[in-house]
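Dear support,

I submitted the protein below through the web form. The confirmation email said the job was done, but the results page showed an empty box. After a refresh the structure appeared. I'm attaching both so you can tell me whether what I see now is the final result or a partial one.
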Amino acid sequence: MTAWGFSRRDFLRASSLSTLGSLYACDSEQLDPSRPIADVISVPDGVEDHHWEDIRKSFILEDVTVYMNNASLGLPPRSVVEAVTNGYREISRDPIAGKRMLQEIIAERVKPLLAEIFKVETSELVLTRNASEGLYLQSAGLKLAPGDEVLITTQEHPAGHRPWMVREARDGIKVTEVFVPSPFVSGDEVVKRVETAIKSETKALSFCHVTRGGHRYPVKELVALAKEHGVTVLVDGAQAVGQFPIDLSDLGCDAYSASLHKWLIGPIGTGFFFVRKTSRSSIQSPFSTDLTQGDPGYTPLGTTSLPVYAALQVALDMILTIGLENIENRCRFLSDYLKESLEKVKGVEILSGNSPEISSPGSTIFEAQGVDAINFVTVMAEEHRMHVDEHQRDGHNAIRISTHIYNTQEEIDRLVTALREEMKKAGGTT
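What the results page shows now:
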């Protein structure tokens, strides 16, 4: 106990060690704050559902509800929800001590954990509310002159497109969209399309690590190509982070923006923005000109949600304990099962690739004969208690299913059964 009444250690003990439902009601004073979270969560030793039952129990989601829209917003576990609550309670009980405690957790725990996971230096990361905020930071901060060209692809999220349109109208730069089909055949195809588009006036390449439809870009190869031409590389990692290991040092991009409230199971309103130290001269902060090695100055000014950011330490501890390789294997197992099940339904066309090199393990898009995707989303929610999403891009009237570690094969079976019913209503055959 500190002079403030509630210590950082107490917060960690109350939050991180209450991961599973069985421990949630325990007296936190009886828990050893030095116990690693690995002692509380058993690491799954397989990909099948029964290996992940305890992990699923750490989430609040009702059993009658099937949630398969993780690409839009993931579900935080009970321990993360409780950590946010604890943080707000303490900053409301003692604002001075609570604020200081939460700031310490963010600086001493959250940012170092993020740096460890993504293999970068702590000083290269700043916390944001989401990937979109980071994308705006990188587009606004990139040094460009009138006539300079920025390449983006046709698969970008609006937050990866609109900021460049603003700069084109305001600063006289040129923005060129490189057409990337959906689905595409191989990573080599994407690289060749970008290579053909690069010209002498091309100064930056901005693209998503994983597309909204679950297609995975060959980031490392695109970075290597861009560097051959002296082109700055900016990556949108919103649909990638948390599904598989990402080594930003190895990828070599200059900047990377991500949301932490999708597959990384962080609280809503969390993300990060990475700028490589060697790239700070070309990607400037819109908030400060007084930059140091320890403070890159990219953090937006003003009051931040300290309890929300501090609660990230619980999510990151859990991710590290389970292991991103295990998460990737589990997600891939579920998406493979989904695709195999959909292949048995006559009139369904799967638009996501089966190869891990060009598809994410978390998202699958498909079209179903006679089924309108937008209407299907509503029907699934209202009649089947299933949360899915639509994907209307590139002329597709597609349905998007984005699964995570807490989903099950039985839920996928329920989804496919409901899909067959809706296709039958529409006059199709299954």
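Response: this is the final, complete result; the empty box was a page-load delay. Residues 19 and 79 are 5 Å apart (CA to CA).
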